[in-house]
Amino acid sequence: MPDHTANQSRHDAPLVRGRDASKDLGVGAALRTVVEPANFDIFPGERISLTGQSGSGKSTLLHLISGLSTPTSGVVEWPQFGSIDALRPTFIGIAFQGPSLLAPLSVVENVALPLLLLGESERHARSAALVMLDRFELSELSDKLPEEISGGQSQRVGVARSLMGEPRLLVADEPTGQCDQVTAFRVLDIMDELTKERGCALIIAAHDPKIASRMDVHWTIEAGRLARNSA
């Protein structure tokens, strides 16, 4: 597993640290280990791709990293963020693979939600959300409901929402899987620009090797076993 001695000489404590972290799912005869004991660190500004076949454990590992799930054994810690209760939406933004927009809220209301949860005024949150939607070239969708937009558009709105509040780590699970390749690369360009502008670390799960190649550090997971490839 990764040896981050070199990274530790360049950075402070990691944003995320996993030590022998594993995850089991199911019960009884259906119980299975989805993520084998894994050791990993994610440092400030680091850019990581996570590749693996469907069912290999990518999403489960991202859920452990983002605090959406707790390990069955071992530990996942966030040395610079504090407890698991403090992670979202303050420090970690999440772009989900599947539908994640709240149906009763308009697009702009969905994107504004993280700022509202952080205590910002409705006026400020809406204004900032409109700026973010414009950055992602989605302004024309601002007043539409999730049911009125396509799956690819919904994913792009979810990415825009994940970057509200200027998180220090963005966890992206196949965030452009429902977009055509041209749109997907445009979204990735914008994600790249925004995360670099803010010094935000990024880990992105992807099937497309062209997407993975854009990152500096490359992780693979196979049958739940995490490994790091040469950059």
How would you characterize this protein structure?
- Helices cover 32% and strands 24% of the residues.
- By secondary structure, the protein is an alpha/beta fold.
- It has a single domain (5-102, 158-229), classed as Rossmann fold (3-Layer(aba) Sandwich).
- Strand 8 (217-222) and strand 9 (225-229) form a beta hairpin.
- It is globular and about 45 Å long.
- The two termini are 14 Å apart.
Helix-strand blueprint:
Elements: H1 5-10, E1 16-25, E2 32-42, E3 47-51, H2 58-66, E4 73-77, E5 92-95, H3 107-117, H4 122-135, H5 151-162, E6 169-173, H6 181-198, E7 201-205, H7 209-212, E8 217-222, E9 225-229
Parallel strand pairs: 3-7, 3-8, 5-6, 6-7
Antiparallel strand pairs: 1-2, 1-4, 8-9
Write out key terms for the chains shown:
single chain; 231 residues; alpha/beta; Rossmann fold; 3-stranded antiparallel beta sheet; 7 helices; 9 strands; disordered N terminus
